[in-house]
From TrEMBL:
Residues 4-33 form the Flagellar basal body rod protein N-terminal domain. It holds the Pfam family LlgE_F_G_D1. The lineage of its organism: Bacteria, Pseudomonadati, Pseudomonadota, Gammaproteobacteria, Pseudomonadales. This is Flagellar hook protein FlgE. Keywords: Bacterial flagellum, Cell projection, Cilium, Flagellum.
């Protein structure tokens, strides 16, 4: 009996050494969770039970459990490295084979898919053609590395104050080159369908109490007919550049309280909501001639036209100032960087100042994480004991938050493991001593005469 008891102790001590050694070996493995050997005593059973004073029959390895407590967050220089601060696992797919991991070594493959260091594709919510997240549809996360197409300006919003103490200019007619013919001006960049930038300049001319004219030029030219006019065929041909400088004009009327109450124009379309629309802008550009000749640049204005919102503008007794201006157009952009927030949303930043959502990382959690089956490569797969995965986005429910540019360290505490090594070694020696003692006793019996 003592031989079997000692042998079971040796097996148990060996298992303890193996598990502790594996923990120590993975002390530097990102996302690794340490294991713990769990032992149970053994009693021999009989037909009528074990009796009131049973003798033990040794020890067995009842199970090996993993401790899923949080590891330290270690910051790296890779923006796509991800760490989970809290509950949950990253979901990865290897040709449809789903596994779960806490190791956040992520990058992109040649197709732009986000993959870990084994090439497994990170799963999440993708976006449609308009950049809207497809919540509930789990798929590979793909980073779009192509240039961002330009967008023509279709809306422009301004808030400005016109100085009510200004006098009506005495110098007429309006001339953009002569500041005495207008009271104030401001400029805004707008874009055509090819992403070319154009300067829309507004010149404000007071025409009477509470009334102003807003003269508009684009690139210093008439928005609808900016082309230079051929006046003599030449050679060399002679062009008149002044013909295309007549501005578009809108009359602005303010209330006694200084609020804009109406806009009228024959050049702009006045919408029912009080905004005005530039419906016939023809983008133009100069050539290399001296002086330059202006002509159609081959692009077009937004098919939605250009709607200008001035409704919050005022006329108070203070200096002219533009408090806010925005427009929705932009030029072509190259991918300049990626950012991932703590909810897993991936933003792509472009050189044109725009950003687009590329997708959202999802996390999975289980009712019994101890029931997950480890498959190596710091990954686990679902089992019957773990239950079905609960899928969600970071910081929802019981799921943790994401930290971009960081990795979760192994949760192995080396000092504890080294002490466990000493204990396992002592246990092994003690069980070997049990076998040695039983052998000596047996030898004594054999030597009886």
């Amino acid at each position: 009996m003592s031989f079997n008891i000692g042998l079971s102790g040796l097996r148990a001590a060996t298992s303890d050494l193996n598990i502790t050694g594996n923990n120590i070996a993975n002390a530097g493995t990102a996302g690794f969770k340490q294991s713990r050997a769990e032992f149970a005593d053994v009693y021999a059973a009989s037909v009528l039970g074990t009796g009131s004073n049973p003798q033990g029959s040794g020890v067995l390895l009842a199970g090996v459990s993993q401790l899923f407590n949080q590891g330290n967050i270690n910051y790296t220089q890779n923006a796509l490295d991800l760490a989970i601060n809290g509950n949950g696992f990253f979901v990865t797919s290897n040709n449809g084979e789903v596994s779960y991991t806490r190791a956040g070594y992520f990058g992109t493959d040649r197709e732009g898919n986000m993959v870990n260091n084994f090439g497994y594709r990170l799963q999440g919510y993708a976006v449609d053609a308009n950049g809207n997240l497809q919540n509930g549809v789990v798929s590979d996360i793909r980073i779009q590395t192509a240039s961002q197409a330009p967008r023509a300006t279709s809306t422009m919003s301004q808030v400005f104050n016109l100085n009510s103490t200004n006098l009506v200019p005495t110098t007429t007619p309006f001339d953009p080159a002569d500041p005495t013919t207008y009271n104030s001006s401001t400029s805004t960049n707008i874009y055509d369908t090819q992403g070319n930038s154009h300067v829309l300049t507004q010149y404000f001319v007071k025409t009477g109490p509470n009334s102003w004219d807003m003269n508009v030029l684009i690139d210093g030219r008439n928005p609808a007919t900016p082309e230079s006019v051929l006046v003599a065929p030449g050679p060399p041909p002679v062009y008149d550049n002044t013909a295309g400088t007549t501005p578009f004009t809108a009359a602005l009327t303010f209330s006694e309280a200084g609020q804009l109450i109406s806009s009228t124009s024959t050049d702009f379309t006045v919408n029912p909501d009080g905004t005005i629309a530039l419906t016939n802008w023809n983008p133009a550009a100069p050539d290399s001639s001296v002086p330059p000749v202006w002509g159609d640049n081959g692009a077009d204005a937004s098919p939605e036209n250009l709607t200008i919102d001035l409704r919050r503008s005022t006329q108070f007794a203070s200096a002219f100032a533009v408090s806010s201006v925005s427009q929705n157009g932009y030029t072509t952009g190259q991918l300049s960087g990626l950012e991932i927030d703590d909810t897993g949303v991936i933003f792509a930043r472009y050189t044109n100042g725009q950003s687009l959502i590329q997708g959202q990382v999802i996390l999975a959690n289980f009712a019994n994480v101890q029931g997950l089956t480890p498959v190596g490569k710091t990954a686990w797969v679902q089992s019957f004991q773990s239950g079905e995965p609960v899928i969600g986005t970071p910081r929802t429910g019981t799921l943790g938050a994401l930290q971009a540019g960081a990795l979760e360290d192994s949760n192995v505490e080396l000092s504890d493991q080294l002490v466990n090594l000493i204990v396992a070694q002592r246990n092994y020696q003690a069980n070997a001593k049990t076998i040695e003692t039983e052998s000596a006793i047996t030898q004594t019996i054999i030597n009886l005469r």
